[in-house]
Amino acid sequence: MHGISRRDVIPANDAASSPVLSPGEVERSATRKIQTRIIPFVFVLMVIAFLDRINIGFAALTMNKDLAITSQQFGFLAGIFFWGYFVFEIPSNLLMHKVGARIWIARILISWGIVAMLTGFVQTAAHLYVVRFLLGVAEAGYFPGILLYLTYWFQRRQLAHAAALFLTAIPVANIVGAPISGVILDHIHWFGVSSWRWLLVLEGIPAIVGGILTYWLLPERPPEAKFLTTEERDYITSELTRDEQQKVKQRLNVFQTLAHARVWQLTAIYFGAMVGQYTMTFWMPQLIKAISSTYSNTTVGVLVMIPYVAALAAMILVGRSSDRRLERRYHGAIPLTIGALSLVMLSTTTTSSVFLSIALWSLTASAINGLMGPFWSLPNEFLTGYSAAAGIAFINCFGNLGGFVGPHAMGYIIKATGSFRGGLAFAGVAWFISAALLIALPKRTEMHAAA
To answer: How many domains does the chain have?
Structure first.
């Protein structure tokens, strides 16, 4: 401490801390506090975000009939969200890096909450196209922005587990949202308004509340974190700085980042992954209900919840294992391969067994969610600063176009063939390709992490 005693630099509220802490103890204490204070907050925000993105899949159980929406139209309106995302993703992430996470994330939450509520007032499929596109515009930058924000707090060797803990919000959004959405569809018809409209309006409100809380409660970076001691702030800041210096000897600028071969390879991997994820997310409620038309919407909600309970466990276990072994490629590729096989089996099986269907959907959901922690650790191993902001946004915005291709292809295939099987097989092939591309990533990715 350069001649300054610990007593001089630690605030009075830290007096209960141990008089002498080793670097390992400081790191463990700081990491525990960061995980306790940062991860739960951004986790809840991501639950809200993903719920507003995917609840159209449940609304479709009654909305499609009310608005005379065909399977092909539904596939298009589910996916057009990602074109709005695509257009504004990179500018949004660069602006967040410039103006700060607290202000920008709050802005994103409030704007998309308003648009999400407006979705409940549409009258035609054309209206839905416009509002879903605008929802993508409003939400653009949120997901990669939070991933970038996590790099402000966690070292590379901790990032897969931290990202996995945050991204558990995706299965949790379905675990929480699926049964709630089913209950709303079956029981809320206030003032004679259709239940699917109430579903979209009510589930948009939490985003606005979350935006207001974000502005007041979310700290920007460790030096501003009042919940850390001075010693913990200094230690985390110095370790993160050393991480940044080890990534590359010469930082890439934004244009070099967007032309980087590994960025494009990661984008292709994520594109294929999203083809399968959003085929599953937007179509699973309808495909499960198709097993038996006697199922209530509440029953469908409970059945859809089950695969995401399995996915939650898979995501945590895979992320923890990836960090412990400092290995990313196989921790992503193996789950994707299992998921691809599950999608192909779903496309070829002729059984109407609910048990078999839910078991295969559980493997599928576990696969894509298990991928997330290891995958989103990869960009941080060679990108930093503005290059990280641009690279993460680029991978996410172009990759998320798979979220348009998958649902739209499913809708088109159902209209052309009268069956969903071709759409599931298409998604399975996309996952096989993504798994192969993951294996083909250079091994030096893990070598850099180990260094």
So the answer is: 1
